[in-house]
TrEMBL record:
This is Thioredoxin-like protein. It comes from Chryseobacterium defluvii.
């Protein structure tokens, strides 16, 4: 885990890489994902502007005396990540160090934290102070997973577009609170 932590980047670097990939895509995937980078950056910006830490959650974090680190496997083009990662970074800011590992740069880390056999992101890895894995969370809060299951159960009755819309509305209203609460319970 130490090697992954050392290769991970700051949230600021994560944003800069996303902007660079949007403005100057240099490979077929970045060209194909251009619209997703644009949406992701807009969602990240919205979350940063609207998010403020919940006092009860902050007190809960402090009461746990968690002295570890948070490693997030992510990519800025991901809708779940763009709604969740900025809130997590802001929540832990000044309390616990948070770094981001770009999933697509080296899939050996995400392959250790698959969700139902998939490389779904974001994946939050909770590390102790010695960088041992304490727990993991992701890729979305329980309510988001329930929406996904509803879509998968009957895409005819609950089409993909409606699922995506409902999920992004939930993220916009919830502002990361559910994700943070679920992670707090794992500390």
């Amino acid at each position: 885990m130490k090697n992954y932590w050392e290769k991970a980047i700051t949230f600021e670097e994560y944003i800069e890489i996303a902007k660079q990939r949007l403005e100057n895509p240099d490979n077929p995937k970045d060209i194909e994902y251009k619209q997703y980078y644009e949406l992701g950056l807009q969602r990240i910006d919205r979350t940063l502007k609207k998010y403020s830490p919940d006092e009860d959650q902050t007190n809960e974090l402090l009461s746990k005396n968690f002295d570890g680190k948070i490693l997030i496997i992510s990519e800025a083009w991901c809708g779940d990540a763009s709604a969740t990662v900025p809130a997590l970074v802001k929540f832990f800011e000044g309390k616990n160090e948070v770094k981001i590992f770009l999933r697509d740069s080296d899939t050996s880390l995400i392959d250790q934290f698959l969700t139902n056999g998939t490389q779904s992101i974001p994946k939050v890895i909770i590390l102790d102070k010695d960088l041992n894995v304490k727990n993991s969370w992701g890729p979305r809060p329980k309510y988001g997973t329930e929406l996904l299951m509803k879509f998968k159960a009957d895409p005819e009755a609950y089409p993909r577009e409606q699922f995506y819309n409902d999920l992004q509305l939930y993220y916009a209203k919830n502002k990361g609170k559910d994700a943070i609460q679920e992670i707090l319970e794992l500390l």
